[in-house]
Specification:
alpha+beta, Beta-Lactamase, 2 domains, four-stranded antiparallel beta sheet, 8 helices, about 60% helix
């Protein structure tokens, strides 16, 4: 049991982007400053090369920071690099220099083409990065679900089942989690991960979810005061459960129901098996 929980806690370690020393606004500012710095470095390289030798299509130097920003920093910084690259090419490398005015119509086309190429490249790079992140997330979720199914089946008591389930959900979503076992309308076992402790409003929302058999969302009537989204886990043997996840309203995943429902179905099967085993063990020997 200790080994299982230790392994699941390792999966809950925040992702590299979740730097506790920097807030979301500060991280976004750092990304834009990095894109500006890369464009400035490309400008220095282009101006240095142009002062020594004539190279056609020197404007392509400015595409490099666009690609790097699109892959590593996101769409906004990549578009910033595309715009700054077109302006820098115009200002430093087209006649008349050190002004945004353009005398040669050919340079107008070159600047416009550089800007369009930057936009296309930034879009492609960002899409590739997003798909790679989505694929990595799906692989991580599949690994967590596989480990959860194996470990929860091996658990030998309800408290261990609830603990393993809460750890797995925290590893899946990186948010505070609460899992409650409910029998005859009262909570008989509760395990939470994270620093958000369920209050009476959350307990009422959990009961409502179980009574109606539907998922309830935090901040939505009649659960305005609840910070948790709740999903019911109904079993055939009467010992039901409720899963609660405290999402940040600004970072709510698009489709949390799919992995949560997988966990809920596995949990229901394990609870039914545990109840059947306990009932069998309680029978008097014939």
């Amino acid at each position: 049991m200790a080994d299982v929980e230790s392994k699941l806690r390792q999966d809950i370690t925040p992702a590299p982007d979740a730097d506790p020393l920097l807030g979301p606004m500060a991280l976004e500012l750092v990304r834009y400053l990095a894109s500006i710095a890369m464009t400035a470095a490309a400008t220095i390289v282009a101006v240095s090369v142009d002062s020594k030798v004539t190279i056609p299509n020197l404007s392509l130097v400015f595409v490099v920071p666009v690609i790097i920003a699109g892959i590593g920093l996101g769409l906004g910084p990549s578009l910033c690099s595309a715009i700054l690259g077109a302006l820098a090419f115009n200002f430093f490398l087209t006649e008349p220099r050190y002004t945004l005015a353009v005398d040669d119509p050919a340079n107008i086309w070159a600047i416009g083409l550089l800007f369009v190429v930057g936009l296309i490249v930034s879009g492609v790079a960002f899409t590739s990065r997003r798909r790679a992140l989505e694929a990595a997330l799906l692989r991580r979720q599949a690994a967590v679900l596989q480990g959860y199914s194996r470990d929860v089946v091996a658990a030998d008591n309800p408290n261990a089942i609830v603990s393993i389930t809460s750890q797995a959900l925290a590893a899946l979503f990186q948010v505070p989690v609460v899992v409650m076992l409910v029998a005859e309308g009262r909570v008989v076992s509760l395990d939470q991960v994270g620093d958000v402790e369920p209050q009476e409003a959350e307990l009422e929302a959990a009961r409502s979810s179980l009574e109606t058999g539907t998922a309830v969302r935090s901040g939505v009537y009649p659960n305005l005061a609840s910070r948790f989204d709740f999903w019911p886990v109904e079993t055939a043997e009467g010992q039901n459960a409720v899963i609660g996840l405290a999402f940040d309203p600004d970072e709510r995943p698009l489709a949390p129901d799919v992995p949560v429902n997988i966990v809920a179905h596995v949990l229901a099967l394990v609870l039914d098996r545990q109840h059947a085993r306990a009932r069998h063990d309680a029978r008097p020997a014939s």
